[in-house]
Amino acid sequence: MSDLIRLSRACLGVEEKEAILRIMDEGYLGMGNEVKAFEQELEDFLAARWKVACVNTGTSALHLALQACGIGTGDEVIVPSLTYVASFQAISATGAIPVACDIDLKNGSMDPIDVAKKITSRTKALMPVLYGGDKGNLNEIYAVAKKNKLRVIEDAAHAFGASIDGERDIICFSFDGIKNITCGEGGAVVSRDPNILERVKDLRLLAVRKDTEKRYQGQRSWDFEVEEQGWRYHMSNLNAAIGRAQLKKIDTFAQKRLSLAHLYRQELQNLPMRFLDLDWAHIVPHIFVIIVSEEQRNELKTFLENNGVETGIHYKPNHLLKKFKGFECLNAEKFWTQALTLPLHCLLDEKDVLKVTDLIKLFFSKA
Ligand SMILES: *Cc1c(COP(=O)(O)O)cnc(C)c1O
User: Of 36, 118, 135, 179, which is the active-site residue?
Assistant: First the structure.
């Protein structure tokens, strides 16, 4: 049997290897000039005056963005139940309560109508998740936020590479091993609000005031002030070096992901399943999800696995977890039983996708 077709993988080359060796030769592994250069290159890439602070994971990006907004004990943050548990844990890490809201079945994104229902006097922010890399119902979400004077902290872990349009508040990216670009592990907080950026830059270095500037000059603060709880969440030069090499390849990665997703959609037409309604012209697809009947989903998953194709399920709704229970999100539960994520990464080629789609056609012809 041929090799396993993996669900997701990092796409690394000689450039990343050379970058790591360069940092090792330079001998400054922690947070220094390389992180500064990566932040600058991310700002150039995002353009339009977006400012960037890099951290060690996407989860810490979310945590610090919330803390920078002054969110903590007694506050509530509304978040779609259909997300990686990282979004929920980042909210509860601040002491705030993650209030699970439902999703829109057509795109897997936060449902603005359910959001409006779940707003209370304790609600401080909304955390939409850019499911699959798509903006989903983001315009409506921002309208609800504006009306209720709430901050918006976007979990954009899936969405790096997509253009950022419209008025947006805070956007958090992940650069973990399987995201659209990787640093090994890493994340970033993006905003045009200078206060947020300044706060995140302090909070990532144990809340030592202005330590970032020192470290970018290869120095440390010996006499300093601390006024609140901070964390060791900064990015290291080693991780930034990998990220810089990856960022240079984003256009190739984007094209590859889009063309593979296009091939899936073309090949899987007219089968008893549906695709998510995403803005394919403007995204860099991070995962490729199909929706099948609840009766067939597990059977199809097993069939593909038995034939060397790894698949995933994004995600188990968080309100079904003991720590985050107490909310009703029926669409998220339905989605969880019907969704199946097919392999999508930059080391796949057309032949791999055709193997997957042929297997799916075979499955439905026998069903
Ligand atoms: C990956 C991911 C995160 C967390 O990012 P890490 O860098 O792994 O901490 C958060 N939310 C979603 C939706 C993700 O996919």
Answer: 179
